[in-house]
Each structure stands twice: as structure tokens, then as C-alpha cells.
Sequence to fold (217 residues):
Amino acid sequence: MKLYGYWRSLATFRVRAALNLKGIAYDETIVDLPKGEQFGAAYKAVNPQSVLPSVIDGDGAPLFQSLAIIEYLDETHPQPPLLPKAPRDRSRVRGLALIAAADAHPLIIPRIRNYLEKEFGVPEPARMAWARHWIARGCAALEANLAGDPRTGRFCHGDTPTLADLCLASHMVGAKLFELNTAPYPTCERIRDACFALDGIARAHPLRQPGAPKPQA
Ligand SMILES: N[C@@H](CCC(=O)N[C@@H](CS)C(=O)NCC(=O)O)C(=O)O
Fold:
């Protein structure tokens, strides 16, 4: 499979982690977001929305939107499953995933932060505060759903990772990148740590990808 991604892209991280957990081999093509490569004709031909990630599986049409891609991977490569079997459980997992991927993430992506800057003159510190606010709201919503629910286990739903964990992990990476203190969300922190204890998710970490800044000595 071919994955189009960028080190800092949280949506790409979700798909990269799913590919790793399922042991699917892939090549990643870097689309440099700060340079605006997502808007170039070459990438637009793959993804007309100009967003990452996209996946090409064989000679089929490109796949787009991280959650739709992960569900495709789960259907074509069922082991290990990333969604539980029972409809109510699947609904909870999808609901948790969407708190991070649909409600919080879209508010912190480059084109939103660029729009705040270019259209409304919002300076960098205020744009950071904006991002931290929406990430914190996502953390609070996840924490309220996860803590004290008997269906929450080592991971968001039981003791094996699901789609919800990939989204929680991406959300918590975003929290770190935007320097949010996540101590008020202990269940989110605990599940994040359980996720990154898994090799497949750890290898997908944005800071372990080509082009990412080197850790400070
Ligand atoms: N909902 C989409 C999010 C896609 C998205 O916004 N990706 C970001 C990177 S994480 C992007 O490509 N942004 C480009 C831009 O904002 O110009 C998904 O989950 O795939």
C-alpha cells in the first residue's frame, strides 16, 4: 500500500498506527504541509480536498479520510480487529473516536490556524491558546466518557486497542505538540501510555517520522 503523509499530521498517524498494528506493509510519500505541497496539482490528483492522509491500495482509487481508511483496513485485514463485534460496542468505539477526530482535531489543523491568522490577524500566542482550548475540551469529553465506565479497560474499550485508541493517542500527541497540561485527564494519560507501549503505535509516533524535529538533548 502507498500512504501519503507528513510527520506532524495527526490523521496520518492514526492510519500509520492501524497499518502497523495489522502488519500491513506500506511506503509513505511525504507531502510537506508547511510548504503547501498538499495544494499542488500532483497531490490534488490523489486527494482533491488537499488534506492528508490518503492511501492507495493496489490499483484501486485513492482512499481518503483517516477513519474511513481505518475501517477499510479493518474490513480488508480483519486481524487484529479495531472495532468490536456488537453494535452497541461499535457505536461506543466510533463515538469516542469522533470526539477526538471529528470534534476536536478539525479546529487545530494548519488551514484553520492559517485562516485565523490571515483573515482575522490572530497572533501566534492566541492561535496556540485556541488550539489548547479545543484540545482540552476534547480531553475533558474523553475523560468524562472513559473514567468510571466499566467498558473502559486497559484501552478505551476493553483490553485491546481499537479505533478509539488510535484517535485518543493522536489527540494526546496533539496535546503535547500544543503544550497542553494533560494531568487533569488521568484516564486519557493512562490509555495514551498503554497505546505507546505497543510497538505498532510507538513506531507510528509523529516525532519518529522523517522530517520531525530531533528530541532536545
Ligand atoms: N478529517 C480528516 C482530517 C484531514 C486533515 O485535515 N489533515 C490535515 C493534517 S492532520 C491536513 O492535511 N491539513 C492540511 C491543511 O490544513 O492545509 C481525516 O481524519 O483524515
Remarks:
- The chain has a mean pLDDT of 97.
- The CA atoms of residues 85 and 91 lie 10 Å apart.
